[in-house]
Amino acid sequence: MPGNTFGKMFKITTWGESHGKAVGVVIDGCPPKIPLDEKIIQAMLNRRRPGMSVASTSRKEPDSAIIMSGVFDGFTTGTPIMIMVKNKDADSKAYGPYTDLFRPGHGDITYLAKYGIRDWRGGGRASARETVGRVAAGAVAKTLLEKENVRIHAYTVELGGIKAEKRDIKLMDKNMFFCPDMDAAENMEKRVKSVRGKGNSLGGIVEIKAEGVPRGLGDPVFDKLDADLAKAIMSIGAVKGVEIGSGFEAAAKLGSENNDPITPEGFTSNNSGGILAGISNGDDILIRAAVKPIPSITIEQNTIDRFGNPRTISTKGRHDISAIPRINVVCEAMTCIVLADHLLRQKAISWTD
Q: Which of these, 198, 252, 2, lies nearest to 13 by C-alpha position?
């Protein structure tokens, strides 16, 4: 199946299914002598692990990372890095009634249309479980970026219609939703508990900020930095929209309002989101991802079976109420991967006297 590889110089290939034996990633192009061990990877994997918040599935996975290759004595060797995470708590019995049914909002119907076969156990390859490999690769990319003093944060700015009014990054680790506004986080928790009791689900918005990104990353045509970031974030299953900088608000502004004035000290605003003409300008890169509600809900819905007969479905099993906050670290990981890729691409064309 094509389409499992992302990147040009820092290249990742994820593999595995939701209810298979394991999931993971192969990373090619990581430079040698980058410090790396399982603890570094585990720190990021723990943030997407099931069962970490009231919005999360009850599936209990330790998500223990195993580095299979590409690391020696705590440093990368420059050869392909393979990271594996075993599936420990997969329970396929709950999906038995849906083997012939298409779940609304899921990829069941499109996957079967494309391949003529589908793994119905938890969504198979289309499951959010696939993102384990992305996060593991993101941990490697983040370690590479930290050597260049680039820092990335992903935090919740909206959940179920509850919006964060503050952006205090120091607060994001002090609540279960990784929200930079404690008052909003408290209201988000109430909203999640209310919706859980009704068998429904919630969507929201994740904001990603990249600080310390050097000028010059990205290309001005097809490999624009913002285009690659948008593709990376949109490739995450639950994401249905991406905006950078002022985003859709730019459509209602005058040019005099949306342009970022330049002074000897730098830009006085950041409507560009840190990217001009597809190339980083040295300001913070700001991305927002619109995350749809989890489609697996217990409320009865109309559907059809694979023979075209009308049916109804109420999806049982262990599911998140919202992809937030577990999706936050996936957004962070994909941003790290893109920036690491473009950083290496820029170093490849940089000449010194």
A: 2
* Torsion angle, alpha carbons of 220, 209, 40, 134, to 10: -60
Residue 1 has pLDDT above 70, yes or no: no
Select from 334, 337, 320, 331 the least CA-distant residue to 18: 320
Q: In the prediction, which pLDDT does 49 show?
A: 82
Tell me the pLDDT of the chain averaged across its residues.
Answer: 92
pLDDT at 351 exceeding the cut of 70: no
- For the stretch 187-223, what's the b/e string if a residue is b when 16 or more beta carbons lie within 10 angstroms of its beta carbon? bbbebbeebeeeeebbbbbbbbbbeebeeebbbeeee
* Distance (Å, whole) CA 301 – CA 218: 44
- State the virtual CA torsion across 131, 133, 134, 138 in degrees, nearest 10: 140
Distance CA 165, CA 185 (A): 11
Which residues, including other chains, have CB under 8 Å from residue 6's CB and lie 6 or more apart? Answer: 12, 13, 232, 235, 337
d(C-alpha 305, C-alpha 245), whole Å: 43
Task: Give the amino acid at 85.
Answer: V
Q: What is the per-residue pLDDT across 75-123, written as a single tens digit (0 to 9) for each?
A: 999 999 999 999 886 666 777 777 889 999 999 999 999 999 988 887 8
Query: What CATH number corresponds to the domain at position 69?
Result: 3.60.150.10
Residue of 98, 84, 5, 6 lying closest to 45 (CA atoms)? 84
Tell me the longest C-alpha to C-alpha distance in the chain. 71
Burial 129-138 (b: 16+ CB within 10 A, else e): bbbbbbbbbb
Domain holding 110, by residue range, is 5-349
State the total domains in the chain.
1
- Its sign, for the CA torsion 274, 280, 283, 288, is positive
- pLDDT score of 259 more than 90: yes
pLDDT in tens, 287-316: 999 999 999 999 999 999 999 999 999 987
Q: How far apart are CA 67 and CA 48, in angstroms?
A: 18
DSSP H helices, 60-206, are 108-115, 131-146, 182-196
Beta bridge partners of 35: 75
Please report which confidence band the pLDDT of residue 353 belongs to, taking 50, 70 and 90 as the band edges.
very low
